[in-house]
Design a protein that fits this description.
Length: about 350
């Protein structure tokens, strides 16, 4: 099987051309053509014939195929994409202040078995390759161009789809390096957020290896018994260790760590839960996102009462944390957080 062109970083491509005694300008032209202009046909601009032959005869340019695009009334779109081996994943286009955020999957299924998550019910099938992550972005971009050519753009990427991104650290990192490269798609690091359930080995690598993208931690409870129940990973990598490690991550000016808190009716939505959250985040550069739970078929938790969501928020605001209630988008098509489940 040929190597995918979309698995190569700019420096990989430069190295390849140098090894073949070809000019580096070819790498710039190829990245510009396929990522900045997002052309899907071979480069027609001036490029050495030998470079063209090397790339187009030896590399594969196929991308995941969009086989379904479910659109909800709020303009959220859930894509079902088929991979080369027939497995399927989902990516979700979320309207966001006149633009879009794209929620990417990093694995087929997930090994983490979080109890509130539809994906977690099916186990890990396999990791995605960098080209399959990059491919979700390119395919969603083409879909937007074709179906919503009214100027809306995909501005933000969030790794919050299927999978624990830090469990697939190498490929997620490689995909990010490709997408932020200034010769290509040139997405700003501040526009990319990677969400983790608290996979400590990946977080340890993050400190020194990951480009300076944003980190979000799914926290969901400050109490270990409750967090153990919701996120079994917490038994191996307890929250205090995770929070200590997160404090060592270098942040840019005005960069924050986002803490996601899923509110589950009568489980973690009480005042004492909010006070616990205030306590554990005391020394963090934190933004808190409160997410009222979206039930899925067979879910054992329920949506919280709106009044309890407001009381929870008030405790955080009184403690002077920037806290927001994340409005649920796409829940009618099961595209909201924790609702993705297609892995075959
Ligand atoms: S919430 Fe994320 S880490 Fe947990 S099972 Fe679902 S996809 Fe995996």
């Amino acid at each position: 099987m040929k190597t995918s062109f979309f698995s190569l970083t700019y420096s990989d491509l430069n190295k390849l051309l140098s090894e073949n005694k070809l000019s580096n300008s070819g790498a710039t032209r190829l990245f510009n053509w396929h990522y900045k202009r997002k052309e899907q046909t071979p480069l027609t601009e001036e490029i050495a014939l030998k470079t063209k032959e090397l790339i187009y005869q030896n590399f594969d340019f196929s991308l995941p195929e969009i086989i379904e695009a479910h659109q909800s009334a709020d303009t959220t779109v859930k894509f079902l994409m088929k991979l080369h081996d027939g497995k399927t994943i989902e990516s979700v286009l979320i309207p966001f202040h006149g633009k879009y955020a794209l929620c990417l999957s990093s694995q087929v299924g997930c090994a983490m078995k979080c109890q509130f998550c539809y994906t977690g019910t099916q186990g890990l099938k396999r990791h995605l390759k960098a080209e399959e992550i990059v491919g979700q972005f390119l395919q969603a971009w083409h879909w937007v161009q074709k179906h919503r050519p009214d100027g809306d753009k995909i501005l933000n990427l969030v790794f919050m789809g299927q999978g624990e991104p830090l469990h697939n650290f190498d490929e997620v990192k490689r995909a990010i390096e490709i997408l932020v490269d200034q010769h290509g798609a040139s997405l700003g690091t501040q526009r990319i957020t990677v969400s983790t359930a608290g996979y400590l080995p990946g977080l340890k690598r993050w400190v020194s290896e990951m480009p300076r993208v944003n980190l979000a931690l799914s926290l969901h409870s400050s109490f270990s018994a409750k967090r153990d129940e919701l996120i079994p990973l917490n038994k191996s990598y307890p929250l205090p260790e995770i929070l200590d490690l997160i404090k060592t991550i270098p942040l840019q000016r005005k960069q924050f760590i986002t803490f996601e808190y899923l509110l589950l009716k009568d489980f973690n939505d009480g005042i004492e839960d909010a006070q616990g959250l205030v306590e554990v985040l005391r020394d963090q550069q934190a933004i808190i996102n409160l997410i009222p739970f979206n039930p899925f078929p067979g879910a054992k938790y329920e949506k919280p009462e709106p009044s309890k969501v407001q009381s929870f928020l008030r405790v955080l605001e009184e403690a002077r944390y920037p806290a927001f209630i994340r409005t649920t988008k796409g829940d009618e098509i099961l595209a909201a957080c924790g609702q993705l489940n297609t892995a075959q």
